[in-house]
Design goal:
With 153 residues, this protein is mostly helical. The protein folds into 2 domains: 27-82; 90-152, Arc Repressor Mutant, subunit A (Orthogonal Bundle). The chain is 78% helix and 0% strand. The chain is built from 8 helices and no strands. It has helices at 2-19, 24-52, 59-66, 70-81, 85-100, 108-113, 120-131, 135-152. Helix 3 crosses helix 4. 17% of the residues are buried.
């Protein structure tokens, strides 16, 4: 009986030796699975933001969508997107505002409210941070470019 246990243990250790007793293979597989899980969570959150950017989204809400704590989500999102959740959200909102600024009949306040910003001051501050000019200046610059193109054509 003792001989069979010893033989079994030798076979078991021999198997560990062939596969790498350090569990390096298992760690690589686990790491790849975790990375895939993180990527899927970030993509899921990006899709969620793309649909809901007009709403008053919070870090807690999108962390829940990801399935991670807000602290873990914050690290993962930054790691894979090279920007924070709020930077991503604001970039979506500013992109929408750029589209709306083409409509000269729409006031800057209406553009702000229809881009997901909670106030005109938040919109102006964020737009200027992202685009390095105010929404009004952006609209004027676009109009000048359009006029210049029309004069050329």
């Amino acid at each position: 009986m003792t001989h069979r246990i010893c033989t079994g243990l030798k076979e078991l250790f021999s198997e560990f030796g062939r596969k790498g007793f350090s569990d390096a293979n298992a760690q690589n597989t686990f790491g790849a699975m975790k990375q895939q899980e993180y990527i899927e969570a970030v993509l899921s959150v990006c899709r969620y933001i793309n649909v809901h950017y007009m709403e008053n989204l919070s870090l807690e809400e999108v962390a829940t969508v990801s399935g991670f704590s807000k602290f873990h989500f914050t690290r993962i999102f930054k790691q894979y997107m090279n920007m924070t959740f709020y930077e991503y959200l604001n970039s979506k909102r500013v992109k929408r505002a750029e589209e709306l600024l083409y409509d000269k009949k729409m006031s800057i306040t209406d553009v702000a409210m229809n881009s997901g910003f909670s106030s005109l001051s938040a919109f102006n501050r964020t737009f200027k941070t992202v685009k390095a000019c105010s929404p009004s200046d952006y609209r004027r610059q676009r109009e000048s470019m359009v006029q210049a193109l029309l004069m050329q054509g």
